[in-house]
Amino acid sequence: MRRECASPFVPKDAITDISTFQGVVSIVLKDGQITREEKRLVIKLASLLNLDVDAPKRVYDAIVAGEKLEEGKEIGKTKCLEVYAGMFQTAYLNASISEDEYLVVAYLRHLFDITDEENELVMKDIRAELEEHVKKNAFQVVEKGFEQAKDVVDGLFDRIRSILPEGGAKGDEG
Q1: Distance CA 45, CA 24 (A)
Q2: How many domains does the chain have?
């Protein structure tokens, strides 16, 4: 039987735009509803993945039916890092972020096999962008909140990794 982490739709092979979207939507639907903030994240993800207009509805219908879609365009490492960064930033800038939203970001880090080094580079870029857009005297407050958000995502990522079989490979049977 397959061990699930946060989503039962973790792809075993290549990561595609559809498999990524299906995994995230399955996470936000775990409690049976999508909050306004979760909807904002899902819409942002669809945009970052450049999904066709009808793709989100197809994915939602498949999840409700308990089906896994085996379609989509494969996404490379650079695109994965861009999507992860965009989702982290969107989640962080959300005024009332929940643990479920942080879990989505941690899930993407796991799904995309983002290393600690890559994660630090992404965080450095986001921090620099925030600093550029926030007045200097307010930046310290923003930076503190940013570090807290990063710590929450890192903690959830470590929890996801700890429940996986040895080696933490995605899609392992166990």
Answers
A1: 9
A2: 1
